[in-house]
Specification:
By secondary structure, this protein is α+β, with helices and mostly antiparallel strands. The protein contains 14 helices and 4 strands. It has 2 domains: 150 residues; 181 residues, no CATH class. Helix 10 crosses helix 12 and helix 13 packs antiparallel against helix 14.
Amino acid sequence: MASPLNSARQIQKPDDMTLPPSLLERAKQGNLEAIAAILQDLGQPYGVTVKVAMNRTCLQILLEAAAPPNPTTPTLAIIDAIHQLNLTAVETLKVYGKAENSELPAWDAEYPATPSPFANTEQNGAIAPSPAGDFWQTLQTFQVASVFPYAEVFKASLYKSPVVQGLLFFGLFPVLLGYLAQGTDFSQIAWVLGIYYASFWGVFLFNLIQPTAFSWRKTLTCVLFTAFVGIPLLLFVQQVPPFNILYAATNWGLIPRLLGFILGVGILEEVCKALSLYFFLLRPNRLNNPLTAAFYGTMSGLGFAVAEGATYSLGYATTLVRGELPLESYELVKTIRFISLPLFHAVLAGIVGYFIGLAAINPSRKSH
């Protein structure tokens, strides 16, 4: 098997079995133009253009072709050639494969810059082949980091990413709760789980609506006011005529039931969720964009859903223990209360919030 560096010259000059001494020496000294010239000859049979650059102690090699080049061939030959140069200033090699019409690489791989233990240098500037053959050539390029990227996992910069932080929170929070919740009251667990599931929808709705202004203080104000002030006020109004009659109608026939859910349940619940926007955002003239108002409306809706879900969850558990609710029904209604209904409440409150935002920027049409 011919040495990759000798093979590079054989492509253009079959009778020349060695590299020009000046080119080889300049390459060994780290001259990027000389290194690129050697690697370009290796890439030509595969229709690959080779470009090199240095980033501190990392030699970056770009393989570019009409279609993304094979990550194994000619990569192994190029890596073996670099190893035989014994570049002392280089610690790692980073190889990228890219299509000519693409802005981003299709793949990348990292290799050590140390020469192969099986390669040796001969006289007259020629570099001898690795006697162990293709198997050892392939084996020496194996990197543990390609299977377990431990260096990347422990980088502090990785954990500054909001996406990574979100994944860690949503993935590990239930595990942490399992350790901390020993002997905790059921209602407390229900509240914590309600907040956990609502957080999913909160992140989703924030990225979907993309409010022009965001404040943690305003968000928590809307959530907490609805959960701890709006709902108790709603429960009180439900006992006052004619709303108590409308609520009672939800247990009657089809038409009374429909009217009760629309005029009683629907209107009162949406007013309850809209109160935080009215008192803390609309009246102080802090709403100047409908999308922002819609977002805070969804947050108020999630606060409503958390409180409602925790309360109903306790009721479902009680009926389950008494044998009045089948286990499969309990699992289903609990899932609906914690996962489906929070989005439902948030969307309805977001629609109301959007129109409140329109009223804020068009005062003359508030009555509409």
